Automatic annotation (TrEMBL), chains A, D:
CDD domains: IscU_like. This is SUF system NifU family Fe-S cluster assembly protein. One of its GO terms (biological process) is iron-sulfur cluster assembly. The lineage of its organism: Archaea, Candidatus Iainarchaeota, Candidatus Iainarchaeia, Candidatus Iainarchaeales, Candidatus Iainarchaeaceae. It comes from Candidatus Iainarchaeum sp. Residues 15-135 form the NIF system FeS cluster assembly NifU N-terminal domain. GO terms for molecular function: iron ion binding; iron-sulfur cluster binding. It holds the Pfam family NifU_N.
UniProtKB/TrEMBL annotation, chains B, C:
The gene is sufS. This is cysteine desulfurase. It catalyses: (sulfur carrier)-H + L-cysteine = (sulfur carrier)-SH + L-alanine. GO terms for molecular function: cysteine desulfurase activity; pyridoxal phosphate binding. Its cofactor is pyridoxal 5'-phosphate. Residues 31-402 form the Aminotransferase class V domain. Its EC number is 2.8.1.7. One of its GO terms (biological process) is cysteine metabolic process. Coiled coil: none annotated. CDD domains: SufS_like.
Length: 146, 414, 414, 146
């Protein structure tokens, strides 16, 4: 995977490599459940993108399965699709540890500041969904002091 | 300075006047089609500023030493230059601001200070946030009514006829864009001015997109206030203008305060300086003002009539080229004749952001988004669009690169 | 960028970094002692701006193309650079304005929006109009009380003790200059901050004269808001900063409106962008911001500790030289140790304007007038004064030229 | 007399030539009358200069004699002194025709914008005094339509 190399060479050739287009045209885990552990929707008013994530958690606070829906540009949809695969089997703490670098590594490109916002919408939505889940299941495993 | 270079016939010579345009973008020549956001700068403007800093720089208006005298003369001359350029009577009608947004914040505060609860302000559904949000917020704070000339989907312009029905004795000011930064239409200002003045209201015009695209004469057009930015007319950032009719400016109280705009200050009372300085508090944008003056000289060397017809040819070429690809929606008037330099469009199945990123890979810079006109996007029922916008240095080959890039995007996303 | 050059030992090398200082004034070397009004610019600042225009210029924040991404990164980096320079937590506390006056207009509007009739604002009798007139006008409009820490003719500073008696539960904000632009004194901010915060009021500081003269750390000094201009710290005109503590900035409503400072806009409602952008409406001073960042790099290369002690040596030399002539009144603290870079004085029988004109004939540029501090002039009981003010490039020989010029004036007018 | 030559060479050498210093140190027509046809005072708050002019007019509206007083810099006092000589024997119309160039010619120097303000204070004061006189003596010779 591409590391973040030259700050100034944003989104080099191949930003729309097969990989991203494939996830855009055939998003994984796309759809909506009738019920789930937690669901959350976010909107980026600047570009009109909107994403909704549903998570199903097991009793240990691990993501068992996930669905997402929404509309947006290729970068935001592909990020959501890639992220939906990535978070399966992860704990909330592990999800909170995911960074903007994770998302760029999943996409395989380095993004400039404005496209990064498109890419981060999915991660923000997932993290906020987790926070909501924790708030309502405070009895379970507490959010650790790290 | 008076050498005339025809913009249309000398496209590529014009390009050479702009240092940045020789930059290569990943091996491609730079095709800069984001002029609606900001234009690039010719060498003449850059060197006017750089050499002023290196030769005559000082603060203006109060210094007695030579540098300060030179700076004062140069800064005041820039005001006169701008006055002459837009047909104002004198520098007393020209306030240097930091841009269109600054002009509107200042103007809206000064005017609404004189309004009473229930008075009406009319803008349109197609305004840039800069000519909307200041009025909107002050209307809310002061109990004023804000009304909107609606977008007309049949013509791609505004429902001009509706203004006649809306306007009333309660209307104090009508503030409208001259050229829409999304739809590209040109407002019929002369007609509007008559209507507005018949109702004893004032006409404020947003010339951000028009001032470098078509000739403007505030007196002939019957405009009471005119706002524009230096950076969209080949001048520097942080420069702008608020033109105001002298009798209006004379009677308005300032909205911003500080040094230089005062005549006498005691701990509890202040009186104001002469026009236009009473509206320029603090150290003004000295070097930016001088750069703006140089930009005016640059624009004068073409004339604007030529730029206007040059950009219309480019517009026709672009509208033809894009339409021929199919699956393209173009916003605004369908005839290139009714447009000035701004072309917003969408490509079916390709999000504007992705289009912009793909074009960027080939060195083509366009804008994608809501263009600071969210209410218009709502009216158009789209979250975003692509926008190509032209300048004096835009060539047909730039448009060909754009069209080719859009074609490629269609293939990738098909 | 981290190369350190001692300002005091390298006076003349420093001079070479400033292109304008090689200008000859009627055969004399330029002796520029009007730095309190504005400083000259080093090549590094000028070329940062010029080459940005020639290589990476575009509008910021919303463009997807490479130029806009580069411009955005550079512009945001300049905010981070300034944040780091004054000890702010992050760029969220740094709003780029067009200068100190702009900062105070913005701040005074934002704060007074939250005040109620009868609330009190405290400033001093020695403030620049920029930190007086905005508060004065808004106080009048909103029925607020404006009080003044008086000038103390014994010390040449302010009656600091009086603040303790003045301040009360009604006091919402105390806004004071850090270094007086006439008297040159340095305000004891740490003590004042404690007093102000003990009364649950806020401390706003005018750092226009101090930011390029002594080290500033807003957190250590306990300052809630800090205002300064780029053009007085070796940066460009039309640039400036309003620092604000993040929790305060988060809760304040903006005072200026337009594009880029919004998140969502409908015809009748707007929501605001994140910090600091919610306070930067419209196209910001992009290139000026980048120039300001370069000025910060320039200042960092000395350190400010060295500039401070360099200017103190110059001050001592100047106070000695002038006093030795006789018939000279110097305003402000009598010890050079208590002053920072600003020296106002009058010569018996020679009007300050005439003195300035005479010095100008020998290439010496000083300021003469009321220095935008008319109420202080009233307290000093003079209509005007001469003022010499120093910078990193000021040399002892500049002071010798000043003293010699004053001596000549005394002969001519005797 | 110096013509206004190079805009950029304000206040060349000799701005404080003998001529100006002489009028500053020994102002002509300096003093105050108990009565006069009209008197008027103006202030330049920017530099604190203030000048007061008294005019004695004959029945044809010609300045018979003049006194001025006040304080200011050498340029403003010398201008006032020179001007006070200049206006003697002139009609109000002739005085209204005096310009900033007249004052610079009297001084024998070209001034930059800020010193010009010092120099113009006297002319402004005299012109305003004439205006006041005309207002109260409208019965006499009307202000011609030139
Ligand atoms: C102490 C002080 N405050 C405020 C200002 C105003 O700064 P600006 O004119 O850059 O807005 C100045 C400079 O003139 C100053 O010296
Ligand atoms: C029509 C219109 N009005 C106002 C503005 C705002 O100009 P600025 O951002 O320079 O203040 C723009 C540019 O973005 C514009 O296109």
């Amino acid at each position: 995977m591409n590391a973040v190399t030259d700050q100034r060479d944003f989104a080099g050739e191949g930003m729309y490599r097969e990989h991203i287009l494939d996830h855009y045209k055939h998003p994984r885990n796309f759809g909506e459940w009738k019920t789930c552990s937690v669901s959350h929707k976010e909107l980026n008013p600047v570009c009109g993108d909107q994403l909704s994530f549903q998570l199903n958690m097991d009793e240990k606070g691990v993501v068992k399965d996930v669905r997402f829906s929404g509309q947006g540009c290729a970068i935001s949809i592909a990020s959501a699709s890639l992220l939906s695969d990535e978070i399966k089997g992860k704990t909330i703490d592990q999800i909170n540890a995911l960074s903007r670098d994770t998302v760029q590594e999943l996409l395989g490109v380095t993004l400039g500041p404005s496209r990064l916002k498109c890419a981060m919408l999915s991660l923000d939505t997932v993290k906020n969904a987790c926070q909501i889940y924790q708030k309502y299941h405070a009895g379970g495993k507490k959010h650790g002091g790290h | 300075m008076k050498t005339r270079a025809s913009a249309s016939s000398n496209g590529s010579r014009t390009r050479n006047l702009f240092p940045i345009l020789s930059r290569k973008m990943r091996g491609h020549p730079l095709v800069y089609l984001d002029n609606g956001a900001t234009t690039q700068k010719p060498s003449s403007v850059l060197s006017a500023m750089d050499s002023f800093y290196k030769k005559s720089y000082a603060n203006v208006h109060r210094g007695i030493h030579t540098l300060s005298e030179e700076a004062t003369v140069a800064y005041e001359h820039a005001h006169e230059n701008v006055a002459d350029f837009i047909g104002a009577s004198s520098l007393r009608e020209i306030v240097f601001t930091r841009g269109t947004t600054d002009s509107f914040n200042m103007l809206s505060r000064m005017l609404t200070q004189t309004f009473s609860r229930g008075d009406e302000i009319i803008v349109s559904q197609a305004e840039h946030h800069s000519n909307l949000v200041p009025w909107q917020q002050l209307a809310q704070q002061k109990g004023l009514k804000l009304s909107f000339i609606p977008y007309d989907s049949r013509t791609g312009e505004l429902h001009w006829e509706k203004l006649e029905k809306m306007i009333s004795k309660k209307t104090k000011v009508v503030s409208l864009t001259h050229v829409s930064n999304v739809l590209g239409f040109i407002s019929p200002l002369k007609k509007i001015s008559k209507l507005v003045h018949d109702h004893n209201a004032l006409l404020s015009v947003d010339a951000a997109q028009s001032v470098a695209r078509l000739p403007i004469n505030v007196k002939k057009m019957g405009v009471d206030f005119l706002s524009f930015s230096g950076h969209k007319m080949y001048g520097p950032t942080a420069s702008g203008v608020l033109y105001g009719r002298e009798d209006l400016f004379s009677s308005l109280e300032p909205a911003y305060y500080g040094g230089d705009m005062v005549r006498e200050v005691t701990l509890n009372k202040s009186t104001w300086n002469d026009l236009p300085w009473k509206f320029e508090p603090g150290t003004p944008p000295i070097v930016e003002g001088i750069g703006l003056g140089a930009a005016v000289d640059f624009l004068r060397a073409y004339p604007l009539e030529d730029i206007f017809s040059h950009e219309k040819k480019i517009m026709a070429h672009a509208m033809n080229g894009l339409s021929s690809l199919g699956n393209i929606t173009i916003y605004g008037p369908s005839s290139p004749e009714q447009r000035a330099g701004v072309l917003a469009f969408n490509v079916k199945h390709v999000h504007a952001h992705d289009l912009s990123s793909l074009l960027n890979e080939d060195g083509v810079a366009i804008r994608a988004g809501h263009h600071c006109a969210m209410p218009l996007m709502t009216a158009l029922n789209i979250p975003a669009s692509a926008r190509a916008s032209f300048a004096v240095y835009t060539e047909k080959s730039d448009i060909d690169a754009l069209v080719e890039g859009v074609r490629k995007a269609q293939t990738i996303f098909k």
